[in-house]
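User: Run a structure prediction on this.
Assistant: Running it now.
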Amino acid sequence: VAQSTSRDSRTVAEWLWPLMVGGAALFAISALVYYHITPELEVSGFLQHAIVGIYDWFGLAPSVLFFLVAFAWSSIWAVTGILERPVDRLGRLLVMALMVGVFLNLGSSGGSPAGHTGAFGAWVASRLVVGIGYVFSIALVGPAMFASLMLATDWFFSEWFERERKATNFETGVEDDVTDHLRR
């Protein structure tokens, strides 16, 4: 279901929702990077436990990529006012983060993972290496990771660039006549 409103007719609340999502994504990226730089940080609050849990469970690179793409989607939502299939997008983002985590953990040949590569990706990668071997795991996970990245970004947001270009209202005039003449 697409939520579409004109840019001029949106209320303040309709502008704030995508900005809040983007702000939360940027906050999560900065907190993850800060925790990665200073792991001896004493964790005390709920948000700190949540960030450390995301860091430990998914890893630094998959989490940062997840929140970076979430920020990109929230920016598109803020500019266009359109939010299409949010649950589907969230699922695709989670699959992308999982596949990146598995791929990064395959670099250690299924051995002991680095602390920042994520426990869940390490668990899946170790099972894949034991089950089908290192080479076949790379051959399976590499294209799956690329495909999940392409699906999570809708082919690097190409539809949104085309949609914005097609939606531009140009004044009719000589340019349209010249274009039609050249097309013939």
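The chain has a mean pLDDT of 83.
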